[in-house]
Amino acid sequence: MQPRKLSGQLLHELGSKIVSGVLESGQVLPSVEALSEMNGVSRTVTREALKALSAFGLVESQPKVGTTVCAREEWQWWNRDVLQWSVDAVPNQHFLLQLVEVRRVIEPAAVALAANKGTAEDFALIQDAFCRLSASLDSDENWAKADYEFHDSIIAAAHNELMLSLIRVMRDALLYSRKTTIPILKETREQSQASALAQHKAVMDAVCSRDEERAHEMMLELLDGVTVLIENREHGGKAHGHSSRQIQK
């Protein structure tokens, strides 16, 4: 196997263990020689993997100390690999809830900007995305993808490149979040995909009618629903004191 592929495999293995907490912050990793022997790879492969982990902020190397796992606040959380390892970690509810908190900061502001700055072409793209969402009710995979594309079309209409880039970096994590909440959405009596679809339509209508305040309000309501669903995932789909108005993204 090529060294590049081997270093990628070792990177994935070590990165996953760090993000999941198997390797804890402050822990000193085995030496390059020991890691190489443990994983059956060359020292060059091991050094490449450690170099990548260092670039991600997951580890740091110091003379006479060795390679140490960094504190979580030093990690490059927007790195795609770090995001994916966070998604794959079990349990990952804390990460998914933090993801919603980030969305609550970005998306309500984005829909208000979209209502203000969006063009007729932007609104047509949002409406097309909503039609695809409406047609995806019978497929969890298609629903997750269409839901992401609906939100992406609205953020694109805000014409803020930094905002759009940030959301797109999180694409895989956002898709995963949607897939994990769909089963709860179907099982919870107070919530359904039909009512979720109505909430999406309310956001779309507010944006396309250039009602910034209502667009902001409707998006917050959707994201409140995401929080409810992620929390309910840990309790077999049973609601815990949250309003039934709070519907999946």
CATH third-tier fold name of the largest domain: Four Helix Bundle (Hemerythrin (Met), subunit A)
Overall average pLDDT: 88
Strand order of the largest sheet: 1-2
Number of domains: 2
GO molecular function: DNA binding; DNA-binding transcription factor activity
Organism: Alicyclobacillus mengziensis
Pfam family, one: GntR
InterPro entries: GntR_C, TF_FadR/GntR_C, Tscrpt_reg_HTH_GntR, WH-like_DNA-bd_sf, WH_DNA-bd_sf
Describe the structure.
The chain is elongated. The chain has helices at 3-20, 32-39, 43-55, 80-88, 93-117, 120-134, 140-157, 161-169, 171-187, 193-208, 212-233; strands at residues 59-62, 66-69. Helix 5 packs across helix 7 and helix 10 packs antiparallel against helix 11. With 249 residues, the chain is mainly alpha-helical. It folds into two domains: 3-74, Winged helix-like DNA-binding domain superfamily/Winged helix DNA-binding domain (Arc Repressor Mutant, subunit A, Orthogonal Bundle); 91-233, Four Helix Bundle (Hemerythrin (Met), subunit A). Mean pLDDT is 88; it is low at 237-249. The chain has eleven helices and two strands, in the order αααββαααααααα. Strands 1-2 form a two-stranded antiparallel sheet. Keywords: DNA-binding, Transcription, Transcription regulation. GO terms for molecular function: DNA binding; DNA-binding transcription factor activity. This is FadR family transcriptional regulator. InterPro entries: GntR_C, TF_FadR/GntR_C, Tscrpt_reg_HTH_GntR, WH-like_DNA-bd_sf, WH_DNA-bd_sf.
